Amino acid sequence: MSDPRTTELTNVSTTVLGADEIILNMGPQHPSTHGVLRVKLRLDGERVVDSECIIGYLHRGVEKIAEHRSYQQFAPYVDRMDYVAAVSNGLGYCEAVEKLLGTEAPIRARVVRTILTELQRIASHLLWLGTHALDIGALTPVFYCFREREEILKIFEKYCGARLTTHAFRIGGLQYETYDGFEQDVKRFCDDFAHRIDEYETLLTENRIWVGRTKGVGILSAADAIALGVTGPVLRASGVKWDLRKAMPYAAYDLYKFEIPTRETGDTYDRYVVRMEEMRQSRLICLQAIENIPTGPIMARIGKVLKPPPGEVYHSIEAPKGELGYYIVSDGTTQPYRVRVRPPSFINLQALDKMARGSLVADVVAIIGTIDIVLGEVDR
Amino acid sequence: MGAPATSVETESMANDPSEKDPASKPPASAAEDKPVAQKPPEPPKAAPVAANPPASPDAPAAAKPGIPPAKPAAPAPAAPAAPKVAAPPAKEAPPKPVPLDNELVQRLKTRFGDAIREATLDRKQAIVTIAADQLREISRYCRDDEKFDMLVDLTGVDWPKREKRFDVILILYSFAKNERVRLKAHAGESEPVPSVCEIWPAANWLERECFDMFGIVFEGHPKLTRILMPDEWQGYPLRKDYDILKQDTDWVRENLGIESGQ
Amino acid sequence: MGLNSILFYFFSALAVGSAILMVTRRNIVHGAVYLITTLLATAGVFLLLQAEFLFIVQVILYVGGIMVLFVFVIMLVNLDVSLLQYQFNRQRFVAGVLALALGAQIFLAIKMGQKSLFPATRVPEILPKNTEAVADALFGRFMLPFEIASILLLVAMIGAVVMAKRRV
Amino acid sequence: MGHLFTPSVMRLVLPVLYAVVIVAVLPLMAGYIVLMERKVMADMQARLGPMRVGPHGLLQPIADAVKLLLKEDIIPDKADRLMFWLAPLVSVTMALLAYAALPIGPAFQIADLNIGLLFILAVSSLGIYGIVLGGWASNSHYSLLGALRSAAQLVSYETAAGLGLISALLLAGSLSMKDIVMAQYDQGMWFIFYVPIGFFIYMVGSIAETNRAPFDLPEAESELVAGYMTEYSGFRWSLYFLAEYANMIIVAGIATTLFLGGWLRPFASYHDHMPGTSIELLDALPALLVLGVALYCFLLAPKQPVKIQKIVMGLVGILCLAIAGALAGSLFASPAVLQGVHGAFWFMAKVFAYLYFFLWFRFTFPRYRFDQLMRLGWRFLIPLALVNLITMAVALLMSREWGWSLRVTSILAIVLTLGVAMWLAKNDDVDSVVPVPESE
Hints:
By secondary structure, chain A is an alpha+beta fold. Helices cover 47% and strands 13% of the residues of chain A. Chain A contains 16 helices and eight strands.
């Protein structure tokens, strides 16, 4: 059936409202909306009066599918939600089901999981930095970022055979032992990454135009952030020092020392600085972790057929975009009764209207970039 | 918004003494002379078990123990015929849900009386079942007095066999106490649930999605319309009685004019 | 009929032609473009008279500056509103009288200048560099009028800014 | 036949000949500048750039040109046909017209007008019509918005660039391009050293004037799709493209002539006044440089994967060899020929160096927002240019009246202008936050 929204979509509707307000449609095929997101902006001249996000173009009904698959079979679907950070999706889901079963992955599995998740965090932030800088007009960083991200994807491919939707973890631990040379690869990447990230900083951080385009743009106060349920780097840039890896440690995060970067004003520039610092911290975690990966089994002793006793659990991890939570209800059969995914991008995107109000059209592009959303996760 | 006190949280699992898994020896002891990347001494029994493919999806393996007899191509484990473990080792069963009675629940009970139906601890997570019509007052109390200042998630679960079929789940988190609590309210088929948008603006989209997926009406919501599905979509997808196949055949017949898409 | 006179007739014909076209066009942007061609043609005539500085000033000031603002205004203000307004032409009589007076003047000019219609004499090859000449006049002898004019312009600019400020 | 070569006819034929050469070479040069841009961009972004068409992508511009010619030329139905057809023409003709006064070599100049610089400025300011009419004629909301924005940008930055030029004109004393270069030759110092801030202002102004690098907002991809060029396609679009690159070369040419000593070889005046050895290293440099390029091509030729690429690489090598020969040969010919041939080389070298800066800016800086762009133009560049003009004039006066050497006074002027620049930048933070009105 023809969906009225798509037909009315392409033409630029300049219905005149109020004095000289016009409605400007951005997307869903817009170069800088990071996927199929449509933003209806009500403009007064160049200034945004209010914005309304229209989503759902990438809705695949992941939660409905979950109710017709066994626990293990649903794991690959989880990677397709936030396809930029598939490894951390997998970690969240596996740990939630392990909690549902009441078991815990062995220490070796937890350490390897931590390393891969932190590498995935760097890769996700790199992709964010590249596309965000491209939206604002800096043509070069995107190529540097993708060059580094390529190294990480190579490690993933060597470990579990896939680069993007990796399905790297299994419920209860790991499927594969780490390949020979895993530690050397990660070490080489971390050593090389140190001065790479300084390269990006020299290119952008003190760049007058970059500062001009990002400072004071899309400000979100700490109170608004908490009220809107925003989590992750966006929340930390508004001054709230809260990170699930410290607040409720999971996997092997309690074994390693790392900082939580926060900033005060919560504008686009602060979110940029917070994410750059987070990449450095992730690198430190990886270095600490590969020093000694404890030996031992990589899989908890859970049977081949998983039938968790009836009940429910909510478990969340610190995904690159924010708090990624899984609320799983089990009715004792091999298939989950209900799987609810708490998508950080979906809830962070809700804050777009608060940030975009009063800014210019060119800034909306920067604001969408700085929230770092992936539409696969927003629409599920 | 001080740094969250890392007091003993009710549901963090790191430092819970009772559940220490024997395998996770403190890393310090594992550190001495660990040969680089050496294979674990004996192939852990669990590896082959998990190696061969899980039972085929549509035949729930619950009834058939071990190798299902009717399987034509019995997937002989590729690994050398490790001794077939007679029965999967005794799994540690998760703790049974146990009624919960900490200060939070007491304060809630004194404040709202029988509106607090029951409070349980399932897998070390606090769940408080409340009356739907008191939802807004309880939420305001939780946010203002109990400092649960972040609405982590709001969603629904459909239990068609129960007379009040929907569960509305609110997951709250307190930065000060670094604690989570889950409010559960039962709502009938067409029974409106008070919206918590004014308390937590985060609820705006979450409630719209809940309405979109289940059809639960949140009265007091500024703009309760579908958020993920197209606006004129019929039916509520996440309901248990929502038949995907029927939906598909209707759409195919209506748009493509052929009988069935399967 | 030297190269000069050929060019002269070309430029003047161009100027007159585009002026007529400008007036008769319905589409206002076409009118603006023809106005620009008229101004450029007159600049060409200046060049023929070896007045290079005047040529450049005409091009930069009129065509490069003022006409750009004209075109700006034409495009920003949506024109269909102004076209709909009732075009008054009750001053038909006054327009007629003025046209007659102008016609008489042109006729007189042509009659008196009969002889110079076909310029026999050659314009002297090299005129003194007129940029310097203009500069001397402007900043030398006519210093005072130049200053007065610039103050006048300044006042006008400030007035415009003040008026615009209030509405924003 | 005799009268064919009378001086007046010769005065006519030579410029026409030069004009034909320039108009023929220009599209080729514009194409190769595009290739240079893509190669430099690739080099800065850790990748290779076009490698497939011809050796190292050398035939890419020809391929682009053929593609553009074959592409379908769409005219939007409700577009204003006359304007739609006229706009790119205006843009290109104005861009080509400006080459009339550009002195590539001492002899190689189409027309040495005594108002040379003003002529180029006037003609390049007419280029705005091409953009504005193009935007208006394509009858789409986006292209009109883009056209008006780029016109506003051009108008405001023309003033800044113009004032930057005037500060150099003070030293030259004449508008004719040839005299300006000769003035730099007589004073033995390129004007960039006397008035570097003027050069800086002109460079920033010229970048904005050609809609490039941090100021390429009118066709910023993310907001206005492709600005005024959205509705154009095929050959018409390539006219706009040619106009943009021609403008770039003109702007580079003006900067070279005014600030970098046109066709003068570095240390030109010392070479002539102090006889020293007749053929100094600098004279031989151009020949050696091109020879090096030729050798490199020959070295690379056998390694090319495809046979055709080997041949083309060989041809390029031979071409460079020929140029090197000409450069070396002219060393022994009469000084006039020497100055002519080497002058052209040095002029082109400086132009390409200047263009390299254009490209460099484009790949390092993000894009200005439109209001920041206008604020930078009006509240920083133009006041700075005025101050620079005044201080330079005072410096000139001091050196003429009190006999101090111009170098000393100009350093004084530079220091003063820099002080003002710092003050300007500090108190009115050019990139200050856009005052967000308190909405509800």
